[in-house]
Structures are given as C-alpha cells and as structure tokens.
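User:
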Amino acid sequence: MSLKQLIKKCSKNDTQAQSELYQLFSSKLFSVCLKYSRNYAEAEDNLQDAFLTIFSKIAQYRDKGSFEGWLKRITINTALQRYRSQGVFEIVNEEFIEDVELDIDDNDISIDFLLKIIQELPDRYRLIFNMYVLDGYSHHEIAEMLSISMGTSKSNLARARKILIEKIEDYKARLNSQSL
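Assistant: Predicted structure:
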C-alpha cells in the first residue's frame, strides 16, 4: 500500500492502517520525543500523545511538503506543550546575551556522552538547544513555537552551550588525569 493510500485510510479511522502508519514512523518519532523529553517514560507518553494528534488531524494533511516532516512537527509540538504552561523560560534583556560557540572534536568525546550531557541540560536549555542545533529551527521560529521572545531563545541557547562546554572540559580533564 502506498503512503497516500495509507494516509487516506487513516483519515477514515481504519485501525489497521493506523497500526501500519505507527509501525512505519514510531521509531523515528520516538527519537524526536527522546530529544524533547526529560526521560524515557515521558518520551513514551509524548509519542502516544503525538500519534493521537496525528490520527485526529491526518485528514488535514494536504500533501504539501514531506509527510514525515509534518509528523515530526506535530511530535515536537506535542512534546513542547508540556513545557509551555510550566513557565520554564526566563525572560531576558537581549543586550546581555553572550554568544558562545560549541566546537566539538569528534575524536575527543563519544556521541553517547554528548547525548547524555544534552539530556542532562535543564528543560529550557535542552529544548532550545535541540530545536536550534539539532532540528535547525531559527530563533524566530522557536520564539513563536514556545511563546517566548527571540532574546530568550538566544539566551537559553548560549547558556546551554556554556554548560555543555563546561561538561566537556571537565570530561576531558578527567580523561587526561586518568591517562597520567
């Protein structure tokens, strides 16, 4: 069955088609949920909620742009809804934003360590970092999606990068002291 046929059947609440769509995309969307969740259990909840939204809105998909991109956007928005009402973002004055570059040498640290320290970031920093660095959203888009200012987005990204740099430097220092 083609993707178009699958979407059409899902829009008619065909449970077998919904199950097939879930099987096709759940692992990719779960990895998105993991990036935007505090832990594995919350990611599972976000995935479940995202698919409920996907199935209720699938008839609205108009075959413009990639279907996978549409699914991903719904999944990200579902995860972000948990944070919007919690006030996890600090409003900041844009004049005091320090831009911090995060330069990582792939030979120095493992991807597992990097993912671990990103997951350990406070919610507001992790969300902005993931949206900007990993998913390619602009500060304008992030500000709109999270109902915050662009300055808040930029500030939280800079703080996330600063924390990650400190953790990477600490990690490298521990490695160097162990090798002596």
